[in-house]
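dumping this here before i forget
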Amino acid sequence: MAVTAPPGAGTPADCTYWATGQASSGDYPRKTNSLYRYTPAMDEQPQPIPLPWGSSQKPVHVVAGPNGDAIWVGTENPPQICRYDTALRSWTQRYISSWGAPRQMMLGADGNLWVATSKGISRFRTDKSITELPGPSLPNGGDALGLWVDQHGKCVWYTNPANASIGQYPIPDDPESALGETRFVSQLVTETAPGQLTGVSGVVQYVSKGLPIPGVPLTCRVRSDGGTTFSDGTTETLVTTDARGQAALPALRGGREEDKVVLAVGLGDSESPTTVSLRVRSES
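structure:
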């Protein structure tokens, strides 16, 4: 269960209590899976909040953001981290890349959400994009049930139910604080025609200390005097690196003829973007 306290809350009855409810057929049967919200001063009964995938999605654990703006739910079927915006009353969600079933979750001193799963430990940013960050690499078959992040944010402790043991691992660097760089792996488009829609325009990789880093949000921009844009008409977008630290760049739509359209990709303002160029030429 998680608790949020609105401004001016004077008693426990003014707070809001959040709990997961799983379908069951025991002494207290419940027909559906759901997140529940209960404010004693306002509600006679807990109020169900449907999960993003409906009643088939199984909630496992819930934690609340420190200022009450978001509630985090780990789910099975599918294995996801779901963020509930308490003001907008809407969901965003992200799959757990290892496809491990979530168990215990907690907000660490590093400001990130830590999740024990059946396939190790995962770490996520608490922003609306729920970006997944590198987590500790557990031994093959690593299974985590409970976890605790130390108050200094230096290591994470976990319990392994498979061999009834306790493990400790150092917390890997946050890719945004690491001295990394974005590199072009391949440029797939070197020329296009006015109005033509290309395929994937290229592939980049984010590397830090010689290792590819997954879960890094890279900013991709089109610099064009002739109106060349991404396929959706924008000139700026975000792409996130996959398990290999790579990200495919969006398709482009050619504008007017010009000799040099620049595609620039980088990690926010923390590095100088890496660039490639292409031409827009009329078909003859």
